[in-house]
Amino acid sequence: MRLMTFQSTAACNWLKAWQSVAVMGIILAVSCWMNRSAVGQEPRSAASDSRQSAVASDQASAEKPVKPTGANLEGIAELAVGREFTAQDTLNCGQEDNEDARECLDGLSWQLGKFKVQLAQPRVGDRMERMVRFDSPLPLGDSTNDLVAVEWYVAHDELGRPVRAPAMVVVHESGSGMTVGRMIAQGLRAHGLHTFMMQMPGYGVRKSAQIGEAHAKEADALRLIPAMKQAIADARRARDAVAALPYVDSSMIGIQGTSLGGFVTATVGGFDAGFDRVFVLLAGGDLNQVIFNGAKDAANVRQRLEEAGATPEMIKEGTRHIEPLRVAHRVRPEVTWLYSGKFDDVVPPACSHALAKAASLSAEHHIEMPVDHYSGALYIPKILLDMAKIMESPKYKK
């Protein structure tokens, strides 16, 4: 993949026109994908009723199998709800001579050991097949929040039967609905991968009164820093939890994060060599640059901190504990890909450039898209395909 640049007026005009078409295409594609059972339906009429009768008659003699929208786990004992597995922490930060990086790593690490991984039943309406639960390695003292929740979208064949395949841990964006994270998880599953979307501290079923208060109270805004440290540790342990599960090809486990989840993923990538592939989308380094100069979502965070009385010094001290640039020199550039927006005003391009430089990413591994923070969604279908191929999905093996 080459670094993409669009400088001419003609190219910009073409891009705007293409984006309009692409948006409609994505909307239609997603609508068809999420509502496959509705494809082919027609308005009711006498003619359509007649056709339906004929179709019903034909089906009575030759029923065609319907392609499932998810995996069918019925009768598979090793994937039954309540099934437990034993996993082992494999975190290995190795030698680090840089004093600042070593301090950062020590603050994010934990005492290694074995831990239990349990399969739980998803809630009604959820699209994943199983919820994977395990204890957080950096607990905050809240039993609801400290039990990590990971949504498992099971890779399957055309009959819905689970298959052995590589796995991707997905770390979602800051939105409470985790919409983009779930869309990416479901999209990668459609490309043949097992996907595991980790609900970060304070999200989904991990949301509790204690964490909720930290989100709601302006005066407690800086208390969210420990939650982000926890998210980084949880994401790294998720790799070992996933490796313990059946049908997962543990020789190829990647991690992908978007926006807020991208910052978490960037730090995890510098933690150790636990993940075989690392994908960072619409994120970068230099969190203070994002907080002090970013627009929209970043500006909202800045306003909350200012209203809480947080000084620039307090913010800088808080964010340094989770700053990706402190460990970016440890990132393995040959297995890391950064997708950034040239016109991103939430995560300024300077932040993605800073991460790319610190991590020694080549042009082929830092893909600059002609988008802002939100129109980057236009490229998700292409990014999903790229990631699936890089992850050696069975669907694309020669």
Nutshell version of this structure?
The chain is an alpha/beta fold and 398 residues long. 38% of the residues lie in helices and 16% in strands.
Main sheet specs: 10 strands, mixed
> Numbering strands along the chain, what is their spatial order in the largest sheet?
1-2-3-4-6-5-7-8-9-10
Structural class: alpha/beta
Discrete helix count: 12
Question: What share of the residues does DSSP label as strand, in percent?
Answer: 15-25%
Low-pLDDT sequence parts: 1-66
Instruction: Kindly state the number of beta strands.
Output: 10
Shape: globular
Mean pLDDT: 83
What is the helix content?
A: 25-40%
Order of helices and strands: HHEHEEEEHEHHEHEHHHEHEH
Computed Rg: 22 Å
Cα(first) to Cα(last) distance is 20 Å
Q: How would you describe this protein?
A:
- A ten-stranded mixed beta sheet has the order 1-2-3-4-6-5-7-8-9-10, sandwiched between helices.
- It is globular, with a radius of gyration of 22 Å.
- It starts with 8 loop residues before the first helix and ends in an 8-residue tail after the last helix.
- Helix 6 packs across helix 7.
- With 398 residues, the chain is an alpha/beta fold.
- Helix content is 38%, strand content 16%.
